Amino acid sequence: MNVLRLLMFFSALLYGNIIVAQEANTFKPVTATTLIILGTIQDAGSPQIGCTKDCCKNLFTHPDKGRMVVSLGLIDADNNKKYIFEATPDFTQQAKLLKIFSAFNTKESPDGIFTTHAHIGHYTGLMYLGKEAMNADSIPVYAMPRMKNFLEQNGPWSQLVKNKNIALQELSNKKEIQLTNSLKVIPFTVPHRDEFSETIGYTIIGPNKKALFIPDIDKWEKWDTNIIDAIAKVDYAFIDGTFYDAAEINNRDISTIPHPFIIESMKLFKDLPATEKKKIYFIHFNHTNPVINKKSKQYRQVIQSGFNIAGINTVFPL
C-alpha cells in the first residue's frame, strides 16, 4: 500500500468514510450515492482580477489548479445519474471531474444543474452549454421563479432556452424534488443581495445521510431559520465562509458585501458539542481569506476549534 492509499485509508477511518484525494485520478470512481466538493472559492476566483496583494501575486504565474469556484457534485451510482450544484466559471473542469468520479456512462453533461442565484460564480458556467461550446441537448436547470425568469428574459441565457440547450425546471421554496429513488433535494430561500433573483440554499437527502448547502447568505440572524437547528437535522453542513474577518477587506465597504465572518460563525457555534461542530465545513472563500492556506494560523484556528475547511475532491457518502 503506497503512502497516498495509506493516508486515504486512515482518513476514511477518522472521518467516517470521507475521503480526500489530491488528484481526481488517485482513486476509483465512486460506486454509491456520493457528494463531492468540486470547488471552494468565491465567485471571482483565486487569483482575482486586479488583485495586487500577496494572496494573489504568485498565482497569476503559478496557478493553483485546486482553486475552483464553489460547486458540489452529486452522484447516484445505483441509478446512473449525476448532478452538479452551481454552474460556475470553472464549469468545464468541474463537469470533467464529475465524469471522472462517475463509474457509469461516459457522457460529459450532468443529468441536472441546480443554481442558487444570479451572481457571476453561480450561473455563468451555463454559457458552456450553448452553440459555441457543448451545444447541449435540454439539460435540466433547476431555478427559483425569479431566477428562471432572469434566464428566460435576458441574453445570452435566453438563447440557451430558445435553442433547447437547457430545460428550465422551476423550484418552489421548501418544496421537495425527488430526483431518483435514492436522492431528494429541498430548496429554501436565504437573505442575500437579490438584485436579479432569489438566493437559495439546499438540503440534499441521500439514502443514509443529509447535507446542507448554503454558499451565500448575508448574516445568520437575518435568516428566518435558526442555523443551529438546521445543522442539527443534517450530517454535513457546507456553509458560507467567504471572509475570515473584516480585516482582510481593507479597500471596500464591508457593509456592501455582507456575509457571516468565519470568526462570527465559530463564536455562534462555540457551545455546540464536538459531534455537531464536526459537521460544519466552511466553503465559498474569497481570494483574501487566509484559511485557503493550510499553513496559516487562521486555518489552524478553525481546525483546532473543531470545524472543517472544505477541500476540493473531498468525497462524502450519502
Helix-strand layout with pairing:
Elements: H1 3-14, E1 19-20, E2 34-39, H2 54-57, E3 71-76, E4 81-85, H3 91-101, E5 113-114, H4 120-123, E6 139-143, H5 145-153, H6 157-162, E7 166-170, E8 177-180, E9 183-189, E10 200-205, E11 210-214, H7 227-232, E12 236-240, H8 262-268, H9 274-277, E13 280-283, H10 297-304, E14 308-309, E15 314-317
Parallel strand pairs: 4-5, 5-6, 6-7, 11-12, 12-13, 13-14
Antiparallel strand pairs: 1-15, 2-3, 2-15, 3-4, 8-9, 9-10, 10-11
Give a quick set of tags describing it.
single chain, 318 residues, alpha/beta, Metallo-beta-lactamase, Chain A, eight-stranded mixed beta sheet, seven-stranded mixed beta sheet, 10 helices, 22% helix, disordered N terminus
Structure overview:
The structure is a single chain. This protein has helices spanning about 5-15, 55, 90-100, 120-125, 145-155, 155-160, 225-230, 260-270, 275, 295-305; strands at about 20, 35-40, 70-75, 80-85, 115, 140-145, 165-170, 175-180, 185-190, 200-205, 210-215, 235-240, 280-285, 310, 315. It is an alpha/beta fold and about 325 residues long. The radius of gyration is 19 Å and the shape is globular. Strands 1-15-2-3-4-5-6-7 form an 8-stranded mixed β-sheet. It has a 7-stranded mixed β-sheet with strand order 8-9-10-11-12-13-14, covered by helices on one side. The longest helix has 12 residues, at about 5-15. The model is unreliable at about 1-15 and about 20-25 (pLDDT under 50). It has a single domain (about 5-315), classed as Ribonuclease Z/Hydroxyacylglutathione hydrolase-like (Metallo-beta-lactamase, Chain A). The protein has 10 helices and 15 strands. The two termini are about 25 Å apart.
